[in-house]
Amino acid sequence: MTAVHRVASNGPRMARVWVPLLSSPLALASLAASVVAALLSGCASNVVSPGGSRVPTISARPEAQDRLHQQANDALERWARAVRDNGGAAITFAGELTSQIGTWEEANGDNKSALLAGVLEPSTALPAERPGRREVKWVDGTSIDVDVLSAQQAFDELVAAAVAAGGECADCKAIRITDANLATGLVETSTGPAEVPMWVYSVRGSAVRITRVAVDGSVTVDPPPWNAEDPPVGISIDLAIGTPDSNKLQVRYIGADDSCGMETTVEAVESDLAVVVLVEERPGPGANACRLVGRLRTADVTLDTALGDRVVLEARQGLPVPVHAPE
Length: 327
Hints:
single chain; 4-stranded mixed β-sheet; 3 helices
């Protein structure tokens, strides 16, 4: 994979298209081989591999005329800042970096809450030595070498990420970590699933194993604080289908059924580093009090330029989503 680091443009580029609601669900490749299931929520991580000397700048953007476009502008600014602070991004994880293998036993029922809150402690000293460089390999055969965190460093990041996500469990007993082994696991990235190095932690009194992606250089893109009384507007996409050399994207989201009479607008707000896909539903001439509002939908959007190595962000929190190649 060739990493190309662009410099942020002087303003967002927008492409708008009116599309009909589509009824067929988007076909997805199964990730049955993955040992990684997302546990934490509220943040996403972007990982930088060695190389790349161009550092993106953050430029002033024209003030948005409505809240949804302001969310998109803010998301592009946050992404540019995260990439700038980290010196340029080559790998972007679209899922959580902490996961588990297995299901907590009834006797360890509080461990789920403890993990979400970052209430863990090693029973013995974890290895502090870095294991050297390892390979990240995508399912299409593309690969890149990365530096790997030590077991102690990855554990510290695991705890810090849980705390930053706001997890709380004051009455939980700490999960006791007894051992750590370096392995690989399948994780979603912005360019599809990839096998990455990860630490697998053993837990005292349980068959469950806790995993943490071990790629060095991770940077967390924190979404704005969530306000349940005034949540973000728009609809979040959770997947995109496209290729780097094309300006066509198909996106997946949860929306209203055709029978609801809603009209859908899909728009891309772009920078040189990222694309934010906005999805809005508005009552059409035949709109009715329809309850079928939880359907899996797909829609197409045309970008100003080919996607390239840009990430695709959802609009409500500005978090990256996976981009899969067409089947």
